[in-house]
Design brief:
homodimer, alpha+beta, Nucleoside Triphosphate Pyrophosphohydrolase, Arc Repressor Mutant, subunit A, 3 domains, 7-stranded mixed beta sheet, two-stranded antiparallel sheet, 9 helices, 9 strands, 19% strand, globular, DNA-binding
DNA sequence: CTCCCTTATGCTCGTTCTGAGCATAAATGG
DNA sequence: CCATTTATGCTCAGAACGAGCATAAGGGAG
């Protein structure tokens, strides 16, 4: 763009107020890289110093775009080439910085979600694929209500009850109800809300790091691996987004090999969404939406009767406005 | 949804392969502020110098969070207090900057979507509410196919045909089909994809600014107001997001007054989505999802028979996992 | 005052979609 | 050959959906 014809947006009244532009800041790029192998949703984590973290690095001058910068960091750190990449969120609280003090740099961070087809052995020794339920044990409902809720539920209730006043208490109770669906329906997409509540209640390690709150008997620090800075929060957001998107865009197929069985597809969807689906209805849905087509081959690697191998039918993108894998239902039995 | 992975074309630049952290950069904050009055979806635009633009300003040191910085800029520029605010996207191509040359600053920009309840007279003289269809005339299908498609369709086809080679041509044709649904189904959510295609095809003013392409008879520059830098792109993204979100979260109610009629609600949804809905089915949907409750009052301001006034039933948030205004159907007649 | 236009509201009917099962098929490992 | 496992086919009732018909209740024109 030519500078003369396209001035950058500037305040309508530049004189209106003081406030120095924030020059001392750094832009970080972080990637939540997701794959599915068998029954497990995997995320690529880098072990580096103390905590596990997501592949990430600062935006550099020679990065043409943010996404390009991200790809280059990921490849440098994990030797993983990314396929489908989408931006998740930009974190930029002023307190989110490297050092304290007057010349504290504000650490802006742009988080991305990337989907890759297979979990390669993760070239670098420091990079490893981890099930994302290692970080969020309470998000896996495939075998029913996780036992960990015996600790979560009373802990959160205690936190709500310990509110400074009734109004805050009611607010907390409502947020709990919304996020966890205690009593009513649970929404598997509200991963971030759940994590944030546990954070605020001081039940995850990061929340304690931040506030210096000690875990109490009523509100114990939960099992579930922690991550550096706010990387676990980014992961929560990524899971939430993916669980939502899977329903109205055919993104699961970005995670599948070129040909696969319907059972494998269902396993992948269940792994991501954390719930079990009714098998027959799932296949009916996939087939009647014509999301897949026959390859003509079959495999008996899956156990019982050999299964047809199918492939994603790309043309469906042009035919239906919002093809996706709507989750037909839940229930532990299949 | 996120901007398509194909970035808007930008002139290739020789890469100095230096790995310097990018210190010289500015963070911009921009807001797409949406309201609905009667039949029109409105966006708050600031006239400043040449082009219209979105309320925006740089992130400053005293802004505790990005969102807070945004609110402060918006209030300073438009005297509008924001309600529901959500982050849209962060733009950060290296070419997106003020000046060329060695010390070019990279201009990162974080765009937000804000919903406000009523279109106040826009305090500042420079700020004005504009129908968003002024910027995107091709997005309003409430009265059937907009006449402007007589220019769009052949223009885009010519662009696809003018591809440097067959592969690119096929790719372009597929993207057109996907975004505009020529022939098949149209997806009202693909606002951004449509804008980006028109941009690449040199059919919107911003695309010409970028490339210095002249409009040709086959590919005329379309009517539709332009905006500064990439603000129209941000608006496209905001519309796309809102059109999507309205279907699975009760966000329309953020735009409605405390009490309203079902007709007004339908008008708002139609204004946002750009399509007409079947009236009876729309009401059935709203009522059986128990999204609203009776106020007991009625109004005859709407024309014919007086209508009941209802209000949003907030408790629905706790009851159903994903309450939203699914669009019951289309068709010009009601 | 009545007719007509307008918007609101109620209800139906056939189709499609969904949830939940029953039943059969075709491998594998004793 | 049998038990086990996964794949696949099919049914059936209830809910949701698309498309109308029909009536109600205002205001304005004549």
């Amino acid at each position: 763009m030519s500078p003369s014809s396209a001035p950058l947006p500037s305040p309508a009244r530049p004189d209106a107020a003081a406030g120095t532009a924030d020059t001392a800041l750094s832009i970080g790029l972080s990637a939540v890289i997701v794959a599915v192998t068998g029954d497990d949703p995997k995320v690529l984590a880098v072990r580096h110093g103390g905590h596990e973290q997501l592949p990430s690095g600062p935006l550099e001058r020679n990065h043409r775009t943010l996404e390009q910068g991200l790809r280059s960091w990921v490849e440098r750190q994990t030797h993983q080439v990314l396929g489908h990449v989408e931006q998740l969120y930009t974190f930029g609280d002023r307190d989110r910085r490297e050092t304290d003090g007057e010349d504290a740099r504000r650490a802006l961070s742009v988080a991305y979600l990337a989907l890759v087809r297979e979990a390669r052995p993760a070239g670098d020794a420091d990079a490893a694929w981890e099930s994302w339920y290692r970080y969020f044990p309470w998000e896996d409902w495939r075998d029913g209500r996780p036992a960990i809720f015996d600790a979560i539920e009373p802990g959160l209730r205690a936190w709500a009850a310990a509110a400074p006043n009734a109004a805050v208490g009611a607010m907390r109770a409502e947020r709990l109800s919304l996020a966890f669906g205690f009593g009513q329906t649970r929404d598997e997409e509200r991963v971030l809300e759940r994590y944030e509540l546990l954070y605020e209640a001081g039940m995850v390690a990061e929340g304690l790091r931040e506030h210096g709150v000690a875990p109490s008997p009523e509100r114990p620090c939960l099992p579930g691996a922690e991550m550096a800075v706010d990387h676990r929060r980014m992961l929560a957001l990524a899971i939430a987004r993916l669980r939502g998107k899977i329903k109205y865009r055919p993104v699961v197929f970005e995670l599948m090999p070129p040909s696969f069985t319907l059972g494998q597809l269902q396993n992948a969807v269940e792994a991501l969404s954390g719930v079990r689906l009714h098998k027959q209805n799932f296949r009916r849905l996939i087939e009647q939406q014509r999301l897949v087509e026959e390859t003509g081959e079959a495999t008996s690697e899956t156990g019982g009767r050999p299964a047809r191998l199918v492939r994603f039918r790309r043309e469906v993108l042009l035919e239906r406005p919002a093809p996706g894998v709507r989750l037909p239902s839940a229930g532990v039995r299949r």
